Each structure stands twice: as C-alpha cells, then as structure tokens.
C-alpha cells in the first residue's frame, strides 16, 4: 500500500507539472530524492516513461477535436493550415530527437538524484518565465522558423528542472506567437516524441516491468492521466490571461526548498 501511495503521489506531480510551466522532470526528481530512488520499482526510467505516457494520452483527449480536424483536412485542398501545422510539429521535433539519439546515455545519467542540477535549472526556468511574462500580446502564428527555435527550447528542456512547457511557451511568446496558439502548439508538439521514445525503449527492451511493479505503475498512470486532464485545461486559461510570472515565483521557491533540503 505504501508503494502504491508513492506511485499516486508521483503521478499527481507528473500530471500537474507536465502542463504547468514548473518542470515535471524537476519535480519528479525532487520527489524521488525525498521519497527514495526506489519509490516505484527499481528503475527510475520506467516511472518517467509511464507517467509521461499518461500525460501524453491526456493531451490527446483534451485536443482530440483539434487534432482530428487537422488530420481530416491535411489531405484536402483547403487544408493549407493543417499541412503547415503538421510540418511545423515535425520541424519542432528534430532538435529534441537528435539530442535524444546522440546523447541518450548522458541524458539518462542526469536523472539520478542530481538535486543541485535540478534546482539550478528551476531557477533558469523561473527567469525565463518572468521575462516572457513581460512580452507584448500578439496574434502571430507559428511558422517554420519559430517551430525550429521552439524545438531547440524543447531539446534544452530535456535537462531535469527546465520546464518543457515553460521553455516552449515562453520561447513562443518571446517570438511574438499568440499565447493560446503557443500553449496548444507546446502541448501537441511533444506527443510524437513521447510515443516515439516509448516505442524505441520497447523495441530495445530497455523497459522491463516486473509483476510486483505493475500495480504501482498503474496507480501512477491513472493519477497522472486524471490530473493531466485538469492541469492541461487550467493551463490554457492561465496562458491566455498572461500569468506566467506567478509560475516563475513558484520555481524560485521550489528551487530554494530543494537547495535547503540538499545542504541541510
């Protein structure tokens, strides 16, 4: 029961922080540091992949109508916007995919109770959000160049403590992209990468779930999926209302708490 409770806690953290710009990976690393590296099973990577899979599914549910419309119209004469959107998503995936393939082992090593790194990256996330909050509100759409730059931000956000949504949304806003469009693009662009990563790990047999882990991981999956649905919906409203600076304050506070816990 204790392991199931820990899995639910990690699932809730992932579900909330995947969409809120406060670094889901950073929060998970802090939680695993406090709860113990074996909070759910023996492999931290398994926990991360399962919980990210849950939030990817919640994203599909939230944007199911938009995604379906994109798919339907992409092959029609009137589907110029849909084809452009798909192309921009593909462009945005390239930097993170290259970094993931070339530096896979080095990246995995970062997710190993490196609390000092996590807290440092949270501070950087907070600064980025604070600066982006001061950007002017515009109605610009994501183009190929913007998609590439946003994709580079997503690649940098592989570091635990750098919020993926925070980095990509802030970059979009600083590039002059409409805030609601920035949030939507940020949440959708990561879905293919998550499913691709899971498929690769399954084919490489790098993910192995034992029978005694299945219940805990299922509990974490359900918790992450449900909270992800709520957080995604909430985040869209928050971005539209230009409230990023409050998340920057939160990142600073969490980083400070983590540093105090580490050194004391």
Walk me through what this model shows.
The protein is mainly alpha-helical and 264 residues long. The protein has one domain (2-263). Helix content is 77%, strand content 0%. The chain is built from 13 helices and no strands. It has helices spanning 2-17, 24-35, 44-62, 64-73, 80-102, 104-110, 115-133, 144-156, 164-174, 179-189, 191-203, 211-240, 244-263.
Strand content bin: under 5%
Count of extended strands: 0
Secondary-structure element sequence?
Answer: HHHHHHHHHHHHH
Low-pLDDT residue intervals, each spanning 5 or more residues: 39-43
Number of helices: 13
| Main beta-sheet annotation | none
Radius of gyration computed on alpha carbons: 18 Å
Give the overall shape, derived from the CA principal axes. globular
Structural class: mainly alpha
State the distance separating the first and last CA atoms: 30 Å
Helix content: over 70%
- Our count of domains comes out at 1
Which labels suit this protein?
264 residues, mainly alpha
Topology:
Layout: H1 2-17, H2 24-35, H3 44-62, H4 64-73, H5 80-102, H6 104-110, H7 115-133, H8 144-156, H9 164-174, H10 179-189, H11 191-203, H12 211-240, H13 244-263
